[in-house]
Design a protein that fits this description.
Elements lengths: L1 H39 L16 H30 L5 E2 L7 H26 L2 H7 L1 H4 L14 H8 L1 H8 L2 E2 H18 L22 H10 L10 H6 L6 H10 L24
Parallel strand pairs: 1-2
């Protein structure tokens, strides 16, 4: 009871600032991608629309509502991380001179590599039939995603997704600036990955190095098929574990090479969540 009272006191003190930070990051990242991809460059990107049909406004409103709930969850998690750092549980630091700028840059790369692995395995875990409906069903209601799908999570999934930060910082020193930079890059990349338009240059997918990056098509297929292509930033976990869709490259080629204009905007039905595969699949 004492811990609960202490934590709620910390929440009351830090909630306004944390909510503002998380809310601004979500709205800035998603609206920026929406305006750039769906409005400003919609015409030149029209032939790169991955799937026909544009989600209804109703879907976007639902995504924003669930994203607001995710922001609240992130607020609680942020207070936990802040108080944990103050108590010495996590290795956050604020003096760049302690490790130098080279280490700060390295820590961002290391965080991305760790997050990619963390996301792949937790993503597969919450696709387990016993967990899917409680952790991941809301996100997959966006069968044809939009930039606003980025934070459209069940509360449990929001908590799982945020935990990579404290887990990483429990073992590896992480500067405040590195954390801020990474979180901003993450929301923009997340919104772009759900944009529904293939943004990767044609030659990258088969490049020996750049081909390790996930394209928008890669994650879009996950939303369409409800399984497979679990990766976040890099394709290597899917390829190593045999969970990348076999016709991914064919779909990518179609997305970047289709010269046929897309049809009229149509409503996309919201399907019931399909049975998820187990980790063994």
């Amino acid at each position: 009871m004492e811990f609960f009272d202490w934590f709620m006191g910390a929440v009351a003190e830090r909630a306004p600032q944390t909510l503002r930070i998380e809310g601004i990051r979500y709205l800035t990242g998603t609206i920026l991608v929406f305006l750039m991809v769906w409005v400003l460059f919609e015409r030149p990107l029209r032939n790169r629309k991955i799937r026909k049909g544009t989600p209804r406004t109703k879907q976007i409103r639902r995504e924003i509502a669930y994203s607001a709930l995710s922001v609240v969850v992130f607020m609680f998690m942020g207070v936990f991380v802040y108080e944990g750092a103050a108590g010495g549980w996590f290795k956050f630091y604020s003096d760049v001179g302690q490790y130098g700028w080279a280490y700060l840059a390295f820590s961002i790369v290391a965080l991305a590599l760790f997050h990619d692995a963390y996301f792949y395995w937790t993503h597969r875990l919450i696709h387990h039939p016993k967990l899917f409906r409680y952790f991941h069903a809301t996100h997959h209601r966006s069968h044809n995603p939009t930039p606003f799908t980025a934070y459209s999570f069940d509360p449990g999934e929001a908590a799982v997704n945020y935990m990579f930060i404290p887990v990483f910082a429990f073992f590896v020193p992480l500067h405040d600036i590195a954390t801020i930079i990474y979180m901003w890059l993450m929301i923009v990349r997340n919104a772009a990955g759900h944009s529904g338009y293939e943004l990767m240059p044609k030659s990258w997918a088969r490049h020996p190095i750049l081909g390790a990056l996930t394209s928008v098509t890669h994650h879009d297929m996950h939303h369409e098929k409800m399984t497979g292509n679990y990766a976040l930033y890099f394709t290597w976990w899917d390829r190593l574990m045999g969970t990348e869709h076999s016709h991914y490259m064919e779909r990518f080629d179609k997305a970047v090479g289709n010269e046929t204009p897309q049809g009229e905007t149509v409503a996309v039905p919201t399907p019931a969540p399909a049975p998820a595969r187990s980790l063994a699949q």
